[in-house]
Amino acid sequence: MNQPTEPKADTSGVRRHNLSLVLRTVHEAGETTRAAVAARVGLTRPAVSSLVEQLLELGFLIESGKTFSGQAGRPGTVLKPAGTGPAGLGVEINVDYVTVCVVDLTGADRVRRTERLDNRSAGPGEVLARAARVAAGVLGEADGHGLAPAGAGLALPGLVSGGTVRQAPNLGWHEVDAEDLFAAALTSLRPETAGLAVTSDNEANMAALAELRFGALGDLRTFVHLTGEIGVGGAIVVHGELLRGAHGFAGEAGHLVVDADGPRCRCGSRGCLEQYAGQAALLRAAGSRDVDDLVERAAAADPGALAALTEAGRMLGRALSGVVNLLDPEAVVLGGIYPRLLPWLAPAVSEELSARVVSGLWPPDAGRLRPASTTTDASRGAASLVLHDILTDPLAYARPS
Amino acid sequence: MNQPTEPKADTSGVRRHNLSLVLRTVHEAGETTRAAVAARVGLTRPAVSSLVEQLLELGFLIESGKTFSGQAGRPGTVLKPAGTGPAGLGVEINVDYVTVCVVDLTGADRVRRTERLDNRSAGPGEVLARAARVAAGVLGEADGHGLAPAGAGLALPGLVSGGTVRQAPNLGWHEVDAEDLFAAALTSLRPETAGLAVTSDNEANMAALAELRFGALGDLRTFVHLTGEIGVGGAIVVHGELLRGAHGFAGEAGHLVVDADGPRCRCGSRGCLEQYAGQAALLRAAGSRDVDDLVERAAAADPGALAALTEAGRMLGRALSGVVNLLDPEAVVLGGIYPRLLPWLAPAVSEELSARVVSGLWPPDAGRLRPASTTTDASRGAASLVLHDILTDPLAYARPS
């Protein structure tokens, strides 16, 4: 990497803070000039120039050859976040796949790999080792792009707190030290990752974070985010912040009861939403082998596929009516397998919402039930946590080359 | 009232703020000394003495004859919030009653009156005029205690925003300017209340506020509060703040679907919680004429009463399992008619919660399902909003006698 042997001598609190301020400003702008940064953050041109020089030296920023005239001052060289150097490693472990991605300082998803496999057939240790294998492969490729992980985010399908999966009904996990197991497995494959900080959270929270940071939500800041996987994950975002509840477990929308006497769920209850609108239940009801097949049959107006989608939509709408009555969100965002299925799910979802939400609460408006962006997922949300850490204190991530 | 003709000349922002700080400190302590206040707020003794003198003069504080030695400095005269002067008027309009109370600066509920009557049989204007009549009577009595309303809080059973009831299914109200109608009716009965500030909110939010400010919750700051009335109201408190949602309508727990094909609800949906656990539904199922009768029969182990309560508890538990899965609260607080009925409701509620909440989320613990305090209700919460305003800027409420 393109970095000096030692961090600068001046590492006082104020300068660290200002380095972060400048780096975040360039990150948010995508590309900008020193003059525009100075105008934005309220520091003098010389102060900003000194900070920018250090960030260039440390490899967090790059200059592009072109110049352009921003709104503030004379034309300047264009500054951009570096596409090399410290990056976020994002890992999503779900019931039937593992996805790993590396996000660079621009926020771009640079390397990405998904491995489909049934994680229910193996113990937690083996599943986390699998995830580490995929991650090691992705990091090898990232190496080639000059990207090195500054930390890892781990998205997991269950109740997560303090680095541990307390409960993951669909995987049959109970009290699994996921962060430690993953870190150990990764270090055994890539010893240079020893000591890498790993942060974990529920995959639905991570997916909602990705939507918030990289999606197309515009001004929308209070929403409920449901992800259709084998299970159905849920996350609640209020004024741009995840609602975590008293113990960090809020959002378990997949286990909302839609039919009290319905089929037994792995959580121990009966008639949970995911027994109707989860991927496994939906494919079984439709008699489809996978989501591609289901989409193809629905597009061809196959009655079995359409009936299964309508029923799933009805149950989704029923559960969501409770969520909307309780939380009064601006919108409901559907991710995971749902965006591709929305043309056939949406009518039944909307019908239930209209019938069951207290009327002032859900005025009809096309934008209120919406698909998640195609470029966001839980692994990207997980990587964004690392990105956030780098942007908050870049000096802590400046390493000798 | 015991107040000077003119407020003090020195009404700068800092002094106003410090007057509030001192008054709030005395309010929270109940009784204290100048020295203890100075130690608490970090101002000098002379500064605090000057502020206290002004608050005494304006009638917000009183001195009691006794002295006591606090932890800071020499013994001092005891200071208390006045039991006379500006007070909060709280008004709850519900489906089958109106309750009005006046809360003084100590937080005590000094005058209170409930009138039972069917508010569904009259239009909104008449109901608000009824409430104003009860309020006028209560204010007459408060007068005798030297208490004058500094504002009014209005608790209403529906979706409330901007002073208007958008929708109150159980009253059949739609877009009712409740604040204006109430203020006009009250002014016609007591002309001296002309210009009185009126604030309105959902009754369930007001009840949760009362629980938070005057209840016995201890350190508990993240909870869901359900009030059993004709309807079932809900409020969500996260880290000590009401969760209001995007439009202020969050918490409509009474319309959570517990049986999708159940009886038609006034909200337009079917099988809403309040069709099973609301007061009207519960009394009908039990064949009881009122809650007293139901309690008496349940205590005598009457099978019809017990069966109705078990079924209501089962539906409450079913709805609450969704709420807990979604919000991960520390506790569920049941108010309204529920505290008296809890001995017979609780077993079924707890059974459903154990069976249906994702397991890590609701560890068994007696304190997690709890009755609301007997001294809190929506009218007291409504009055507490006024109290909060007075404590935040006492000078604004200092009036010539």
Explain this structure.
Chains A, B: This is ROK family protein. Chains A, B: Belongs to the ROK (NagC/XylR) family. Chains A, B: It comes from Streptomyces gulbargensis. Chains A, B: Pfam families: ROK. With 401 residues, chain A is of the alpha/beta class. Chain A folds into 3 domains: 69 residues, Orthogonal Bundle (Arc Repressor Mutant, subunit A), CATH 1.10.10.10; 141 residues, Nucleotidyltransferase, domain 5 (2-Layer Sandwich); 153 residues, ATPase, nucleotide binding domain (Nucleotidyltransferase, domain 5, 2-Layer Sandwich). Chain A is built from 12 helices and 15 strands. A 5-stranded mixed sheet of chain A has the order 5-4-3-6-10. In chain A, strands 13-12-11-14-15 form a 5-stranded mixed sheet, sandwiched between helices. The first copy, chain A, has a 3-stranded antiparallel sheet with strand order 7-8-9, covered by helices on one side. In chain A, β14, α11 and β15 form a beta-alpha-beta unit. In chain A, α10 crosses α11. The first copy, chain A, is globular, with a radius of gyration of 23 Å. The N terminus of chain A is likely disordered. Chains A and B meet through β12 and α10 of A and β12 and α10 of B.
